């Protein structure tokens, strides 16, 4: 489990492509590697991946073909920056909201508006997912726990603060790129439950 509070952006230093999977080598500073062991879970752009090896300042992750097909990890190149969050430990402060590291869909960046006064991103997703993306609700974007701004039938806005931009890779995204989206599980459960109840009542 994760909180959506990104701890660092780390560089992809190698990608070893094999049949059915890619092995990512991510450069991590010593403080982020402290206590990290093989088999541990780490969120990369919001995707829960298992540590397969640790060597010097590099941490290795295997990414299966299915994961590559549904996330933006397939778009990574040498030098790409990924948002990193270690898994939640008992007693840790939860500053964001609970995330599983399982991506529901990808959003396409429609527009980035960056001025001295604001940094806004407009994202487009398949309309079926907009049932769970509510104004002032939570959504996981590239592993970041963020509050939703204005919504339409197919899009939503994000209004990012300087601290978020400093700690994540959202400051370098451009229109046309895709971002990993994880829907808030509690919101999804409530919406699905209400829809089932209303559907039953309509059939009575």
UniProtKB/TrEMBL annotation:
PROSITE patterns: LUMAZINE_BIND
One GO MF term: riboflavin synthase activity
GO cellular component: cytosol
Catalytic activity: 2 6,7-dimethyl-8-(1-D-ribityl)lumazine + H(+) = 5-amino-6-(D-ribitylamino)uracil + riboflavin
Pathway participation: Cofactor biosynthesis; riboflavin biosynthesis; riboflavin from 2-hydroxy-3-oxobutyl phosphate and 5-amino-6-(D-ribitylamino)uracil: step 2/2
Domain of life: Bacteria
Function: Catalyzes the dismutation of two molecules of 6,7-dimethyl-8-ribityllumazine, resulting in the formation of riboflavin and 5-amino-6-(D-ribitylamino)uracil.
Protein's recorded name: Riboflavin synthase
Highest classification ranks of the organism: Bacteria, Pseudomonadati, Pseudomonadota, Gammaproteobacteria, Alteromonadales
